[in-house]
Specification:
single chain; alpha/beta; Rossmann fold; four-stranded antiparallel beta sheet; 6 helices; 11 strands; 28% helix; binds S-adenosylmethionine
Length: 231
């Protein structure tokens, strides 16, 4: 099956996303509380908000959240869960917000792996910097690079997680396929610590965390990689 653009991919997955692929709801509250302890609650953009998992917890934690996603079907589910403002937009085309207008931008559960085209991530980060108010920050949660399985045979399918397979299709690029959705697949970008250092090199301060529980980030092992970067 040919890889789908992320909008088409998530439009197809939206109906089963919460049951099969979303984080458990309780995690949303833990993440929102960590964010409220780390940043003074203000306006926050959830970039790639999906079915709106964390918008309610963010509001509970004192933030004024807005969600943005390119998939109409994912946003349709989000509308049922939250009263927060929701924006249908493809972040690759820019962020539809004025400059210096947001205190915090978050992009969780691996959303940034979907920016696979040349310069797409660089352009997105420039847009995030434009919309953040002075002193504002971006928080990104990505799979820890150690979670990608080794590749004994180049280009062969490997089991990534239960029900999820991936295969390398170019430098830093993988095809990800969902077994339970009949092999529905999309391209993803593998981001390693060196990529993060390069992408965030112009930011005022950058921290790496092993998740939302505290502790020390280890480049060689972990489940997720959380990057907090300040403009
Ligand atoms: C893995 S889901 C994560 C959803 C949510 N952030 C969470 O933590 O549950 C990735 C989401 O990013 C959205 N997305 C991917 N590429 C996007 C883009 N270029 N612009 C806006 N949203 C995008 C998808 O539609 C999908 O809803």
């Amino acid at each position: 099956m040919e890889p789908l653009d992320s909008r088409a991919f998530y439009d197809r997955v939206a109906g089963v996303y919460d049951q099969r692929y979303a984080y458990p709801p309780a995690l949303g509250l833990r993440q929102a509380l960590w964010l409220a302890q780390t940043f003074a609650p203000g306006t926050v953009l959830d970039l790639g908000c999906g079915t709106g998992r964390i918008l309610g917890p963010l509001a509970q934690a004192g933030f004024s959240p807005v969600g943005l996603d390119c998939s109409r079907a994912m946003l349709h589910r989000a509308h049922r869960k939250t009263a927060a403002r929701l924006v249908l937009a493809d972040a690759r085309q820019g962020l539809p917000f004025s400059g210096n207008s947001l205190d915090l931008v978050i992009s969780l559960h691996a959303t940034l792996i979907h920016f696979t085209g040349p310069q797409e991530l660089e352009n997105l980060l420039a847009e995030v910097r434009r919309v953040l108010a002075p002193g504002g920050a971006l928080v990104v949660e990505l799979p820890h690079p150690a979670t990608y399985p080794p590749e004994p045979v180049p280009g062969a399918w490997r089991e990534y997680q239960t029900g999820m397979r991936c295969r390398s299709v170019g430098p830093g690029l993988e095809e990800m396929s969902l077994v339970e959705e009949g092999g529905l697949c999309t391209l993803i970008r593998v981001l390693r610590v060196a990529d993060i250092k390069r992408l965030f090199s112009g930011w005022r301060r950058v921290e790496m965390h092993p998740g939302f529980r505290g502790g020390k980030f280890r480049p060689d092992r972990g489940e997720v990689m959380v990057v907090a970067a300040w403009v």
